[in-house]
Amino acid sequence: MALLNFLRPAPATPPRDAHLPAFLQGASIEVMPRTAEKVEDFAAILPRGTRVYIAHIDGTPIADMVATAARLRAEGMEPMPHFPARIIADRATLDDWIARYRGEADARQGLILAGGVPQAAGDFETSMQLLGSGAFDGFERLHVAGHPEGNRDIDPDGGEAGVSEALRWKTEFARRTDAKMAIATQFCFEAGPVIEWAEAIRAAGVDLPVHIGVAGPAKLQTLIKFAIACGVGPSLRVLQRRAADVTKLLLPFEPTEFLSDLAAHKAAHPEFAIEGVHIFPLGGIKASASWLDANSKDQE
Questions:
Q1: pLDDT by residue (tens digit) across 239-272?
Q2: What's the whole-model pTM score?
Q3: H helix runs in 179-255, sequence order
Q4: Domain 19-295 = CATH 3.40.640.10
Q5: What are the UniProt keywords, alphabetically (predicted)?
Q6: Fewer beta carbons within 10 Å, N or C terminal of the chain?
Q7: Where are the beta strands (DSSP E) in the chain?
C-alpha cells in the first residue's frame, strides 16, 4: 500500500490564473467626461453596480462632471467622483459640488485626494483637509490615494515619510467615523513591490483595505508614456523588459500576469490587504471592459 501511495501522482497544482476570476469580482474602472462620451451605454459593457470613478482633471467644468455622474447612475453604475483638494477654491465650492453630485446623481461615494497640480487654487492643499472639513458626512464610502512606489509630490526626496504619515492619519480618521474607507492606488506593473508595500503598511498599523490600481490593456508605448508621466517607479522595468523584446513590442500589454500573481498570493494569504482591483483604462474603456469580462469568468 505504501508503494502504491508513493507512485500515485501528486495533486495537480492549479494554474496561476485560476484565482483571477474571484480576485476581479467587484473591480472598478475610471472615466473622464470626454472618455465617457465615447461609450454608448455603460450597462452594455460593465456589470450592473460597477463602481466607476470619475477623474476630475483641472479645468473640467463641474457641470460636465455632475452630468457624467448622473448618466452613470441612470445606466446602473455606482459613480465615485474625484475630489482633488488643490483645484477646489474654498469650502463654499466644495459644498456646492457635493450638493450637486448628491442632488443630481445620487452620488454616495467619493475619492478624496490632493490632486496632481503643483499649486493649490484656494484653501485646500491636502486630502486630509477635505476629510477633516466634515463636508463628506453622510457619504457611504470614501476612498483615498495610495502610492506603492512612492510619490515625489509628497516626498520630493524619494522617501516614504510623507505618504506614510498621511496613511496613518487617514487610518485614524476611518476609525473615528462611520464611512467605509479604502486605499485606491496608482497603477503598478509588478506584483513583488506591491506585496512588500501592502505588508509594510499593515505592519505600520494601516489597516485600510487596498484596491490595487492596474493599467488596462493598451499599446506598450502608451503605457510607458503614462507610467513615466505618473511617476511609476520600480515596476516600470516590467514594461522596459517587454520593450526590449521585439517579438512583443507591437502586442497590447495586458495586466493578466500581474493580477494573477496577486490573486495567487491572496488565495494563499487571505488576510492580504488587497481586497479589490481598480482599472485605469489607458487603452480605452471598451478594451478594459472586454478584458475584465473575459477574465472574470471561472475557467472550465
A1: 666 655 544 555 678 999 999 999 999 999 999 9
A2: 0.87
A3: 191-203, 220-229, 236-243
A4: no
A5: Oxidoreductase
A6: C
A7: 28-31, 51-54, 78-84, 109-113, 141-146, 180-188, 210-215, 274-280
